[in-house]
From TrEMBL:
Domain Response regulatory: 2-113
GO MF entry, a single one: DNA binding
Modified residues (4-aspartylphosphate): D53
Annotated protein name in UniProt: Response regulator transcription factor
Entry keywords, A to Z: Phosphoprotein
InterPro entries named in the record: CheY-like_superfamily, LytR-like, LytTR_DNA-bd_dom, Sig_transdc_resp-reg_receiver
Length: 251
C-alpha cells in the first residue's frame, strides 16, 4: 500500500514515517508540505492512500480534496477534533488526532486495506470513447477512483464503483449512490468521456448506468430493454443502445 504524507509540519511527517515502519506492507512514496505540492505528488505518484492534515498554509485539506477530480483513499491527521463530522461527510476512511497513536493508525490502515482488496468483476467490454482530433484524450477514471462531489453545502468523497446511475436533471447531472442524489454541473457527454466503458454504459440520451449494479433485464417495447438497478430505479434502454447492449453482453 503506497502512502503519501501531506502535512506542513516536518516533525509530524517524520513521526508518521516512524509509525508506518511498523507496517511492512506500507510504503511512504512521498511527502507534501501544502496542497499545491500535494497535487503535483498525486499526479506523479498515484498513491493508494493519503494521510492528510487539515490546517495547512494556503488551502486546507478539504479544499485540496474539493479541487481533485479523482483521489486516493484519505485518512485525516489533525490536531483539531471539530472537523471530524465534516471529514466523514467526504467519506474519509478515518480521522486521527495528533499525536497519532499506533493502535489508531493500525485500525485506520486496516480500513484502507479492506477497501483496496475489495474484489471487482468486470463483465462487459466496450470500445473506448473517441477523443477530439488534435487534442489529448481525457484522463480515464477507473471504478476504483474516488471523486469529490459537492451539492450546495453538502459534499461527499465517492468511489465510482458505488455510483449506480448518472441521470440528466435539467442543466445538471444527478448522481445515484446509497440514498443520496446530488446534482453536479457536468454533462453526460463530459462524464461519458471520463468513465470506464467496461463498467459504465450509456443506456439512452438521459442516463448512464453502472453495469455492475444491474439486478434484472427484461424485454421491452419495440425490441428495447428495461433494466432494473439494485436499489433502483428502472432504466429503459433506447433501441440503438439495446442492440449495442446485447452485443456487449453476448459471448
Amino acid at each position: 500500500m503506497n502512502v503519501l504524507l501531506v502535512d506542513d509540519s516536518r516533525l509530524a511527517r517524520t513521526e508518521l514515517r516512524h509509525l508506518l515502519q511498523a507496517f511492512p506492507d506500507v510504503t511512504v512514496v512521498g511527502e507534501a508540505r501544502h496542497a499545491a505540492e500535494a497535487r503535483a505528488r498525486l499526479q506523479d505518484l498515484r498513491p493508494d492512500l493519503l494521510l492528510l492534515d487539515i490546517h495547512m498554509p494556503g488551502e486546507t485539506g478539504f479544499e485540496l480534496l474539493a479541487s481533485l477530480e479523482a483521489a486516493p483513499h484519505v485518512i485525516f491527521t489533525t490536531a483539531y477534533d471539530e472537523y471530524a463530522l465534516r471529514a466523514f461527510e467526504v467519506n474519509a476512511l478515518d480521522y486521527l488526532l495528533k499525536p497519532v497513536q499506533e493502535n489508531r493508525l493500525a485500525a485506520a490502515l486496516e480500513k484502507a486495506r479492506a477497501k483496496l482488496l475489495a474484489p471487482a468483476v468486470v463483465e462487459a467490454v466496450a470500445a473506448p470513447a473517441q477523443s477530439v482530433p488534435d487534442e489529448p484524450p481525457p484522463t480515464l477514471l477507473t471504478e476504483h477512483d474516488q471523486v469529490f462531489v459537492k451539492d450546495g453545502e453538502r459534499c461527499w468523497f465517492v468511489r465510482l464503483s458505488d455510483i449506480r446511475l448518472f441521470e440528466i436533471n435539467g442543466s445538471y447531472t444527478q448522481i445515484y449512490f446509497e440514498q443520496h442524489r446530488p446534482l453536479i454541473p457536468r454533462t453526460l457527454q463530459h462524464l461519458e468521456q471520463r468513465l470506464d466503458h467496461k463498467v459504465f454504459f450509456r443506456a439512452n440520451r438521459q442516463q448512464i448506468i453502472n453495469l455492475k449494479w444491474i439486478e434484472s433485464i427484461e424485454p421491452w417495447f419495440s425490441n428495447t430493454l428495461k433494466i432494473r438497478l439494485r436499489g433502483g430505479p428502472e432504466v429503459e434502454v433506447s433501441r440503438q443502445q439495446s442492440v449495442r447492449f446485447r452485443e456487449l453482453m453476448s459471448l
